[in-house]
Amino acid sequence: KQGLSKTRDQFVGKVEEILTGRRKIDDELYEELEEVLIRSDVGVNTSLELVERLRKEVKKRKLQEAEELREVLQELMADLLGTEEAMNFAEQGPSIFLVVGVNGVGKTTTIGKLAHYFRTDGKKVILAAGDTFRAAAIDQLEVWGQRAEVEVIKQKEGADPAAVAYDALQAAKSRGADLVIMDTAGRLHNKVNLMEELRKVKRVIEREVPGAPHEVLLVLDATTGQNALQQAKLFQEVAGVTGIVLTKLDGTAKGGVVLGIQGEINIPVKWIGVGEGMEDLRPFNPQDFAGALFD
Ligand code: GDP
Q1: Any idea where the SRP54-type proteins GTP-binding domain is (predicted)?
Q2: pLDDT above 90 for 192
Q3: Greater confidence, 38 or 218?
């Protein structure tokens, strides 16, 4: 069920409250809907747009009863979320995924889950411990590497992340790996430093593997709602993000943020995290997501 029960109960629960009870469609109803959407972290612009589109559909289909809006709203949400976006892989040689995000969002866990997912899929995976700022981050990645049964390339705490990237790419070439997943530092105290560091790592990747990185995945914590949106805007600027992993959807009623991200930033959500275990990562399917919400 995609771990969406809290979002379904609270967000959609409130929508349902508005739509049931033999109500007629009127301005007050639209306003209530708008408010629920905004409160559910869908984002102001996206909420207004959704309700605007809803009004148009109601006119077009000549609807009168509030209960008829349920299906239209589900359609509009699915439409906003678009179609499932596949991951990009190298046509030949190793594919390189760079994983970025602020500390605590679930970046290490997500890398472990991705390693497991693709290893189970038959790929030879290598992890690169590029968050050299924290010794704990390197250790934690090693633990995930053991769990997922994939090799982890690392250096000491304080090492140059670009050097770790270089090592990992050499290892990938010599071992014939299919996929390298690279961790990066997640401290945001200094935007300029972060940008410099990511740029340097990217330069090494681009030089060593033409066409890489094939994905720059931004990990966002769904429980942080609007903060996640702000982080997305920042990383889009500094890292050229190609896809989003939205974690901790299992523990939150803020699943509406998926709609906000899709509506306000043009980066597809490609994966969702729905738990702490190795299997708790799902490719994001917009239709299923919208369907699960209104189940
Ligand atoms: P990092 O600092 O970004 O590398 O974050 P971690 O990977 O260490 O994760 C931080 C915490 O979030 C850990 O306790 C994880 O178990 C937890 N976590 C990560 N992803 C999920 C998820 O999808 N659902 C839940 N419930 N917890 C998660």
Answers
A1: 94-295
A2: no
A3: 218
ipTM value > 0.85: yes
Strand-pairing partners, residue 221, are 247
269: Cβ–Cβ under 8 A, 6 or more apart, which residues? Answer: 81, 243, 244, 245, 246, 258, 261, 262, 284
Contact between residue 204 and residue 121 where contact means Cβ atoms under 8 Å apart: no
pTM of the model: 0.92
Show the ligand 1 pocket: residues with CB < 6 angstroms. Answer: 101, 103-109, 186, 247-248, 250-251, 273-276, 280
What's residue 103's pLDDT? Answer: 92
> How many Å apart are CA 210 and CA 119, to the nearest integer?
23
pLDDT value, residue 2: 58
Q: Which of 99, 103, 107, 109 should be mutated for ligand 1, with most atoms under 8 A from CB?
A: 109
The pLDDT of residue 289? 84
17 pLDDT above the threshold of 80: yes
Q: At residue 145, does pLDDT exceed 90?
A: yes
Residues tagged in the binding site annotation: 101-108, 183-187, 247-250
- State how far the Cα of 105 lies from the Cα of 85, in Å rounded to an integer: 22
Query: Measured between alpha carbons, how far is 219 from 224 in angstroms, rounded to an integer?
Result: 12
Give the residue from 216, 221, 201, 212 showing the smallest Cα distance to 268: 216
Q: SS3 of 96, please?
A: strand
Rounded to the nearest angstrom, the distance between the alpha carbon of 138 and the centre of ligand 1 is 15
In whole angstroms, give the CA distance from residue 147 to residue 142.
Answer: 9
Q: What count of residues does the chain have?
A: 295
At residue 79, does pLDDT exceed 80? Answer: yes
Q: What is the mean pLDDT of the chain?
A: 92
